[in-house]
Specification:
10 helices; elongated; two-stranded parallel sheet; 6 strands; Outer membrane efflux proteins (OEP); about 450 residues; four-stranded antiparallel β-sheet
Length: about 450
């Protein structure tokens, strides 16, 4: 038997609970809490909690530290040393005595030189070195800085992609919720229509077949309520995943379709200067160029400066002697088995490949952006048309319901009108979501992740 007035809402309660269990995998006692959230709040949360954003920030941190490490050659390196050694090796004993200022005439005796007594050397010292001129290290530092800038651009691009995914999931959730509400309204309307049919049957103005047909239509709408409720929960769960939330919380979009997703219909041409992915691509080319310069610079001489100071004693608390040394060294690669030439050619080929890929990315970006502009205009026109069709179908449904109540239309006419109105309502909701998604995609491709401006 059909459900009487309010029956659709009674149906919805167990359906929603069952869908929650299916979506989250939790028992009723562990159902996730519902969290009302706006699109702006969703974007902010995703930038902080989305795993892709967390990973991108850590990669940037790593690249920044690598750039600092690569630039450390500009500073001298200083290290302290302490140690102890004991030996009876003739050469070692001879050197220890000299460093300790304990060498005497008796140490020149043949027996003392050939078979010395074991001796200890307690040492402490400082060593300093500075690469005063190394073109390879300078080029490697430039490459590391360019790689760090590329990671910064990739972080911004990740933010753009995450915001786009959140907007898409949010719009899907809003559309699914609106469709569920529309189907619930249909269920209530069908329940009211069944009451009218039952009254007309009792008055002899309708047949039992009309009653059965109305009950069948109500059962069909109730099935749609079940599916719409599950789809709405699925969409909210997908939004939670995009936010980086766990299964204990379920976002609930507030309000209707965001106003900024309905307010604009065109966009001025873009020079793509704000596209973070293209900036990252350009920075990667710069990093490879610096690597190629490093490969070329490896053929040039490098200058190292060094200094050392140390103390030596025969025992831990004995008298100490001090020694120092300073100097410089020029390193010149004379022959490396043609390795340097091969590395330079390899680095140059990598630069050419990266440049070609960057040009292709820019070309594809322009084509995608042009297509996105066209899609926004088409989605706006489609939404306008769907709105008109929905309004006409809903009005036709209302008029036929009145005519049926007055005995001037058949039940088949009313049911057909209601089916058309339900279909057009669903299409209008989908068209509005598609328009919002087209605008979100345009923002993403135009390099504007921070917000969907209504001024366009």
């Amino acid at each position: 038997m059909g459900v009487r007035s309010g029956g659709a809402l009674v149906w919805l309660v167990p359906l929603v609970v069952g869908a929650l269990v299916r979506v989250t995998g939790l028992g009723a006692q562990e159902a996730p809490r519902s969290v009302p959230i706006s699109m702006a709040e969703a974007e902010t949360i995703a930038r902080e909690q989305n795993p892709a954003m967390i990973a991108a920030r850590e990669r940037l941190n790593g690249a920044s530290e690598q750039a600092r490490a690569a630039s450390a050659h500009r500073w001298p390196s200083v290290e302290g040393t302490v140690g102890v050694a004991r030996t009876d090796d003739p050469v070692g004993v001879f050197g220890m005595k000299l460093r300790q200022r304990r060498f005497g005439e008796g140490d020149f005796a043949t027996d003392a030189l050939n078979d010395p007594t074991a001796r200890s050397d307690w040492t402490a010292g400082l060593r300093a070195g500075w690469t005063a001129g190394d073109p390879v290290r300078r080029a490697e530092a430039r490459s590391a800085r360019a790689a760090s800038r590329a990671e910064a651009a990739r972080l911004r691009n990740t933010a753009s992609a995450v915001v786009f995914d959140v907007r898409r999931a949010y719009l899907d959730a809003v559309a699914a919720g609106a469709l569920m509400t529309a189907v619930e309204s249909r269920a209530i309307a069908m329940t009211e229509l069944l009451s009218v049919v039952e009254r007309r049957v009792a008055e002899g103005l309708a047949t039992v077949a009309d009653d059965l047909q109305a009950r069948a239509s109500l059962a069909e709408v109730e099935a749609r309520v079940a599916l719409a409720g599950a789809a709405a929960l699925d969409a909210r769960a997908a939004l939670g995943v995009a936010l980086g939330w766990g299964a204990d919380s379920l976002p609930e979009p507030v309000g209707q379709m965001p106003a900024s997703a309905r307010a604009r219909s065109g966009v001025a041409p873009s020079a793509l200067t704000a596209r973070a992915d293209l900036e990252a691509s350009q920075r990667s080319v710069e990093a490879l160029n610096a690597q190629a310069q490093a490969a070329s610079a490896a053929k040039w001489p490098a200058l190292d400066v060094f200094g050392a100071w140390s103390t030596h004693a025969a025992s831990l608390g004995g008298d100490r002697s001090a020694n120092w040394s300073v100097g410089m060294e020029v390193r010149v690669p004379l022959f490396t088995g043609f390795a340097l030439e091969s590395r330079q050619r390899s680095a140059t080929a990598a630069v050419r490949a990266a440049e070609a890929e960057h040009v292709d990315r820019v070309r594809r970006a322009r084509a995608e952006l042009a297509g996105a502009r066209r899609m926004v205009d088409a989605a706006r026109r489609a939404w306008d048309a769907r709105q008109t069709a929905r309004d006409a179908a809903v009005e036709a449904e209302r008029l036929l319901a009145l005519r049926y109540a007055e005995g001037m239309a058949t039940l088949a006419d009313v049911l057909a009108a209601r089916a058309r109105a339900a279909e057009q309502t669903g299409e209008a909701i989908a068209a509005e979501a598609a328009w919002g998604l087209a605008l979100a995609r345009l923002d993403y491709l135009d390099g504007e992740p921070e917000g969907m401006e209504e001024s366009r």
